[in-house]
Amino acid sequence: MTQQDTPSYLIGQRLSDYDFHLPNELIAQFPLADRTASRLLHVTDQVIEDLHFTDVLDLLRPGDLMVMNNTKVIKARLRGRKETGGVIEAMIERVTGEFEAISMVRASKSPKPDTRLLFEGENGETAVCTVKGRQGEFFELQFETPVLDVLDRLGNVPLPPYIERLADDKDIGRYQTVYARHPGAVAAPTAGLHFTEEMLQALKDKGVDTAFVTLHVGAGTFQPVRAENLEEHHMHSEWFTLSEETERKVNEAKAQGRRVVAVGSTSLRALESAAIRKGCVKSGAMDTKLFIAPGYEFKIIDVMITNFHLPKSTLVMLISALVGRDRVLEAYQHAINEKYRFFSYGDACLFELPKAESKEVL
Q1: Rg (CA), the chain
Q2: What whole-number distance in Å separates Cα of residue 118 and Cα of residue 347?
Q3: Would you say residue 113 lies in a domain?
Q4: N or C: the chain end with fewer CB closer than 10 Å?
């Protein structure tokens, strides 16, 4: 990020201001049996209250528009070897074509262009690809058979690094939202994991409308922020699409003074990245590197449903932009004291923008 395109609100902000101590035992290693059984921490500038996730039915209002990310997690982790024999592990970052992908590759020695990689499944099936080049830390891979077919047959669910176990068969279904439609993500939009079809229907019956964006979450979402001065941090790029139907629903909601509720940071970043002015988004497909931190002026969203996030992460900075850094750290310390479950398989939060900041353009 150059000085020219650095948002002014990042200048002077420090990474250490977003740190907190999280006991390791609060990091959820397994999902709950019931998706909706999670706890919910409701946070505004006035309230920090302990609820259950099903209380979302009371917190959302008739007329609210709930926007969700319908990306589908692919089995992006592949294990195998170089044709010359060295053991490798590949984490597909993005499928770029029917036979092409970019990927992180872990090996004792980085593979050079034209190296053939052989991936193997537990049932003896194999697939072959060739390294075509590099894009920074990622390798360009050319597969001999369609990438998504290879992943479906040979891949493993790419659980986040803080889940200290191997993925099992249950994760195939549980590390996926019930409304996942478009394959491409290597990490789940985890705020959506709490919803069931029944709960979505109950919200619809109440008068809550829904719309979707598609943002394929990449492995970069787990990359730590290394720069102490936030203006020096380079955000990873994420590709998303926002349909004409979602454009219409969002713009109508804002024009009519109804609230837009983002389910997860990916939905929020897509909506804010697609904003062409306050209260108005434009449909299309694009990459986003939007870095949201305190000082950012929200153009679209009024409410956010999200999970708890890592210390010193850009996601903690994002939610701090909603209700303030001190308020977030206070809420997180409350959650730690009350032994909430953290991260992907953990509990949820619902943040509301202060009323003065969420007023609509009529």
Answers
A1: 21
A2: 39
A3: yes
A4: C
Q: What is the mean pLDDT of residues 353-360?
A: 66
- Domain identity same for 137 and 284: no
**Distance between CA 338 and CA 50 in Å, rounded?**
9
Is the pTM higher than 0.85? yes
Question: What amino acid occupies position 207?
Answer: G
Of all helices (H) and strands (E), which one includes residue 153? helix 147-154
pLDDT at 210: 98
**Residue located via tokens 């549980």:** 174
3-state secondary structure of 279: coil
Residue 197 maps to a domain: yes
Cβ neighbours of 312 (radius 10 Å): 18
The tokens for 360 are 């609509």
- Which pairs with CB-CB distance under 8 Å and at least 24 residues apart come from 252-255? 253/63, 253/64, 253/65, 253/209, 254/279, 254/280, 254/300, 254/360, 254/361, 255/279, 255/360, 255/361, 255/362
pLDDT beyond 60 at 362: no
